[in-house]
Amino acid sequence: MNTTEFLMVTNAIAPDREAIVFENNRLTYGDLNARSNRLANALTGMGVQQGDRVAFIEVNTNHCIETYFACAKLGAIYVPLNFRAKADELTYMIQDSGASVVLAGGRYVSTVQDIKSEIGAVKHFISLDDKFDGWLDYEQLLASAPDDDLFTEIDDSDMTILLFTAGTTGKPKGVMLLHQNFSEYVINNVTPAEPDVAEKNILTVPMYHIAGIQAVISSVYGGRTVVIQRQFDAEDWMRLVQEEQVDRAMMVPTMLKQLMDDEKFQQYDLSSLKVITYGAAPMPLEVIKRAIEAFPGCHFINAFGQTESAATITMLAPEDHVIEGTAEEKEKKLKRLGSIGKPLADVEVRIMDEEGSLVGAGEVGEIVARGARIMKGYWKQEEATSATIDKDGWLHTGDLGYQDEDDYIFLAGRAKDMIKRGGEMISPEEVENVILTHPKVEDCAVIGVPDETWGERVRAVLVLKPDETVDEEEIVELCRSRLASFKKPESVVITDEIPRNPMGKILKRVLRDQFKEPITA
After folding, report:
1. Helix-helix angle 179-189:3-13, to 10 degrees
2. In whole angstroms, what is the distance from residue 218 CA to residue 305 CA?
3. What is the pTM of this model?
4. Which of 21, 45, 388, 457 has fewest C-beta within 10 Å?
5. What pLDDT does residue 215 have?
């Protein structure tokens, strides 16, 4: 199946069920299907064809979902952009994708306007809310287009989403995701829509992230109502769960901790929650133990995966979060609470050594995955694709781990030095390249420091030029002006030398040991 069939089937089963709740908008599956058809017909009128790229930048709204399914119906490729990205980053992603259409929320129109001359391949600009000179109006487009169904011949092996993720080269890489990447996961792991079963799923993770996209597609297949938050806010989240009687939630560990730390946490009735899925960043053991107590009767799932695997490849199941039994059984379950669970049935997951051989239980190696859910490759980057997917089809995740005798997988660090902060991937080299433009900096390395709230936080280690001094805020402000805010260093330390191997590669492991003190500010 392709993803357009998910909407078509659910619309046939439950057309009057609410598909989306977003602020003052309540859209049924019939509404979602009709609005997606109208947008698809409008895009067709602009000349958008199968295989064309359509870029989108906005916080979570109903427009995200409508635009994705409009693109899917056309066979066009949806390109969701990180709304935290700066002008240079947006320019690169839009140029690299070759997008012919850009849709943007009102707060991002000025940024796109500033880079218009650099993204000449874009033919049409669509404003999602306010009216701007030279921009088409989203709602007017829908009002003037028919809601007739489109019938495009779409193969499961056709690309549906181009999702940019941080790369070790410092530039984002476009991950090519196919219809089958999503359908393989959804069909094997999600219960399809039923006429008499209605659930609500609150969406707080951004829809430019694989977790957000996967949550939407899974919800549509399952006939669930998606309750959308523009961006996460703890009290608003609790209000929505209480008012809408939400059944399911997907959260990064940072969000879960912020909820429980909120002074009004005990004032809201969150008992409707049946399932909380968490992932996208390491979950501190103390946080999940606290959450299990704070949400009695709720089932927890730890979902581990990455963009290149179209989300989840291993899962720590609800029963693994129930710490009961003998003292010995409790001890084993507490230990496994720190794992990422077992491989899902529709994907192979193994541990591989540096020579490319699969290792046995207890041996540390790189986590690799294989199956129909693995990405097609990186957009226009054959070398990077070959370095990530080997000749036998194994996706090299860059994460190190080991598997116990019962197939539970435990993380043991990362082969690559990417930083995961609150579910966001940060390329150290990208931050380093910005810092090295400072006239007083001689050398620089950026590392991730473990943090209970954020998973990791960013620390910059600098070597200054002779007789120079620098204020920490100078470095932070330089990065803030050039990069998305979450990428900026939260700690700057000065040292005499950056450790490197004989080939000149920075020894990040040495730095992480040397500068591992928590960031408290």
Report:
1. 50
2. 15
3. 0.85
4. 45
5. 95
